[in-house]
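User: two proteins, same treatment. go.

Assistant:
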Amino acid sequence: MKISIRKAVKEDCKRLLELIQELANFEKAPQEVTVTIAHFEESGFGSSPVWWAFVATTILEGTGEETIIGFALYYIRYSTWKGQCLYLEDLLVTEQARGKGIGKLLFETIIEECKSKGFKRMCWQVLDWNEPAIQFYKKYNAVLDGEWVNGAIDF
C-alpha cells in the first residue's frame, strides 16, 4: 500500500467528516458530532480559517481513485507561558489501515509543521482508556499530564 501525505483541501471535507464520525464512534460518543458540512468547510477553507489538516491517502485497487484513510487536524492556540502552540484536535487512521505506520507519518508531519512555524509546543488530548494511543505517544517522549481536568460549556 503506497501512502501519500498532503495538506487537506476543501474537497476533502466530506470524507473528513466521515472519518470524524468514525472517531466519535470509537470514542463512544457518536451523537456528539453535530457540525454541518457548511460550517466545517467555512471553518477550514473560508476567508478566516481556524483549522488546518493533513490527510493520508492511498490509491484504491481496481478503481485507481485516491481515498483518504487518515487525517490529522490542528489549530493554533495561545499559551500565556509559551506563546503560540499547535493543538492537535484529531488524529485518526481508519481501522482497516491501522498498523501500517500511517499514524506515525501523520504525527511526524504535524511535528514538522509545528517546528516550521516556530511553535514552542504541540499539545493534544488522549482518552485515558485508549492504551494503544497512549503507548504511541510515549514513543515520542510525550508528557501525558493527568493532573488537569478538562472543562467545557456547550451552547
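Protein 2:
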Amino acid sequence: MSIVDADIQPLSFIFGDDGLVPNNAMPLLVYKRAVALDAINPEATIEKLFGANGWGAMWRNGVYDYLHYHATVHEVLGVARGNAVVRFGGDTGTEVAIAAGDVAILPAGTGHQCMSASKNFSVVGAYPPGPQVEITRPTPENHAKALKTIPQVEIPQTDPVRGADGPLVRLWQRATQAS
C-alpha cells in the first residue's frame, strides 16, 4: 500500500467556535509525509488509498483562497504535488504548512483557507459516505444553520489513511464523548 509507515500518527488540532466558523469538538488531523506518492501520477496514489478506506466522491484541485467550511460532511485533503500554507480553524485559527504526501482530515465545520501555494499545488479531496458536500461561507445565518447540522454528521467508519483501525475513529469518538 502507499502508506509510508503503518504506525504513523497524525498531528491533532482543536479549534473553538469563533461566532462565524463553528469548527468542531473533534480534532483536525494532519498526517505529515504519510503517503509514498507515485512520481508520474501522485493523484492516483492518493485516490487509491482513500478509496480503499471507504472515502469517495473524490475531486482534484487546490484549496480555495477564501474562508469556508462544510457543515454537512467531513473532508479529507491529500496533497499530491507541491506545497501550501492553509489556515485551519477560521480567522483566528492556525496556519499549517502542507506538502506532497501530507493528508489533512477535517471534521465538519472546520474552517479552512489557502493562504499561499506553489504553482504546482494539487490536492485530492474526498468524503466518507453520506450527504453531498456544500461549501459554506462564514456568515451569522450560516453559522446558526451549521450548529444544527454539524452534530448530525456521523463519525466515519474508517480513517482515510489507516482504515478501520486508524486513529481518526478513536480520536473522534473520544471527542464526541467528552463534549
